[in-house]
C-alpha cells in the first residue's frame, strides 16, 4: 500500500458579486503575482463595461464566449518506438473551460492597448464575431487533431 498522501483538491468558491464559480475562475486566471484585489477590479469593471455597452446579461455573455472558445480535444505528445506522435485526447468540461479562460487572458495580454480591461473587452468582442486569436488557437488545435486522428489509438497505451 502506498504511503504517499493524497492531496485534496481545493474547491473554488463562487465570487461575491455574481455568485458564480465561472467568474471566480476567471478572476483567478486574470490574477498575477497574487494580486487578487486588482484582478477583482479588472473583471468586475470588464463585466460592468459589457453590461453598459452591449446591453446583455454579463454572465450569460461570458458563458457564451467561453463556449465558443472551448476546445473539444487536446493534443499530447506520445513517444512510441523512437518516434513522437501528436495524439488527440478528449478532455472533460472543467479542462475545456480552464483552457478557454486561459487562452482569452493570454491573448488579451498580448494585445496592444491601454488597460487590461480594454484588452479583455476587445478580445471578447472579437470572439463574439468569431475573429479573436483564441478562436484561431481553438481552430488550430482542432485541425491538428483531425490530421492526427489516426494516432488516437496510442492514447490507450501508457507512456513507453
TrEMBL record:
GO terms for cellular component: small ribosomal subunit. GO terms for molecular function: rRNA binding; structural constituent of ribosome; tRNA binding. It comes from the Bacteria. Keywords: Ribonucleoprotein, Ribosomal protein, RNA-binding, rRNA-binding, tRNA-binding. Residues 3-149 form the Small ribosomal subunit protein uS7 domain. NCBIfam families: rpsG_bact (TIGR01029). This is Small ribosomal subunit protein uS7.
Amino acid at each position: 500500500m502506498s504511503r504517499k498522501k493524497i492531496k485534496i483538491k481545493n474547491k473554488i468558491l463562487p465570487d461575491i458579486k455574481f455568485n458564480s464559480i465561472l467568474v471566480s475562475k476567471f478572476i483567478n486566471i486574470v490574477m498575477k503575482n497574487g494580486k487578487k484585489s486588482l484582478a477583482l477590479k479588472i473583471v468586475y469593471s470588464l463585466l460592468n463595461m459589457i453590461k453598459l455597452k452591449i446591453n446583455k446579461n454579463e454572465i450569460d455573455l461570458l458563458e457564451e464566449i467561453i463556449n465558443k472558445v472551448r476546445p473539444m480535444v487536446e493534443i499530447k505528445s506520445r513517444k512510441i518506438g523512437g518516434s513522437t506522435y501528436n495524439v488527440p485526447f478528449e478532455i472533460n468540461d472543467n479542462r475545456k473551460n480552464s483552457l478557454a479562460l486561459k487562452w482569452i487572458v493570454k491573448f488579451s495580454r498580448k494585445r496592444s492597448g491601454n488597460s487590461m480591461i480594454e484588452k479583455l473587452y476587445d478580445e471578447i468582442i472579437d470572439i463574439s464575431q468569431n475573429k479573436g486569436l483564441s478562436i484561431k488557437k481553438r481552430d488550430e488545435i482542432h485541425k491538428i487533431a483531425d490530421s492526427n486522428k489516426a494516432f488516437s489509438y496510442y492514447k490507450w497505451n501508457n507512456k513507453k
